[in-house]
Amino acid sequence: MTRAADYDRAVSVLLQGGIIAYPTESVFGLGCDPDNGVALRRLIDIKKRSEKKGMLIVCHDFDLVKRYINQNLVDEEELKFAFSCWEGFCTLAVPASEAVHPLLRGDFPTVAVRISRHPAVAEICGRFKKPVVSTSANLSGREPLRTYADTESVFGRTADFILDGQTLGYERPSRIIDLRTRKILRD
């Protein structure tokens, strides 16, 4: 069982520019402060991931992600679609605001956003008071890790803190849809 002190430690690591691993709906995620360029670079290096790909942010509360979205480019119908999508298990590529760090965006004018129902995500983001980066805990091109033990085995020396916990048991990572075109980017 995850204790309050574990969440405090995760947030402390984020505030210090560190990398955490934590359970999400289907896999363990690796995360950092989405506004910290040094942390983003380190996360890309740890995963051996191309900086061109970009990464997503996850949070439990839309109000905490609004500043990352260029709301001038999102109309009311698209916002309704976003909320209906987020009620399920879906990530949306939305127009990125100027607040989005280039390493988070990659080569895209969008930022990927998921509103999560996972209690650990809610607890971390609620305490951190903003979203966290959520990229699957894996080395680029390898299968994502689904357990604390596997995550500890691969990232125990490179992540600054691994939150013990369970995924929600979803079989696959979330579908990613472009909000404006509705094109499925990852199924």
Explain how this protein is built.
The protein has helices at 4-15, 37-47, 62-65, 76-87, 102-105, 119-128, 148-155; strands spanning 20-23, 28-31, 56-59, 90-95, 110-115, 132-136, 161-162, 175-178, 184-186. The protein is an alpha/beta fold and 187 residues long. The chain has one domain (4-186): DHBP synthase, CATH 3.90.870. A hairpin with a 4-residue loop joins strand 1 (20-23) and strand 2 (28-31). Helix 1 crosses helix 6 (119-128).
Features:
globular; alpha/beta; 187 residues; 9-stranded mixed beta sheet; 9 strands; DHBP synthase; single chain
Poorly predicted residue ranges: none
Strand tally: 9
Roughly how much helix do the residues carry, as a percent range? 25-40%
CATH class category name: Alpha Beta
What is the residue-averaged pLDDT?
Answer: 96
Radius of gyration from the CA trace?
A: 15 Å
Continuous helix count: 7
Strand arrangement, largest sheet?
7-1-2-6-3-5-4-8-9
User: Which percent band covers the strand fraction?
Assistant: 15-25%
Q: Give the biggest sheet.
A: 9 strands, mixed
For the termini, the CA-CA separation is 32 Å
Write the CATH homologous superfamily. DHBP synthase
**What is CATH's topology name?**
DHBP synthase
How do the helices and strands follow one another from N- to C-terminus?
A: HEEHEHHEHEHEHEEE
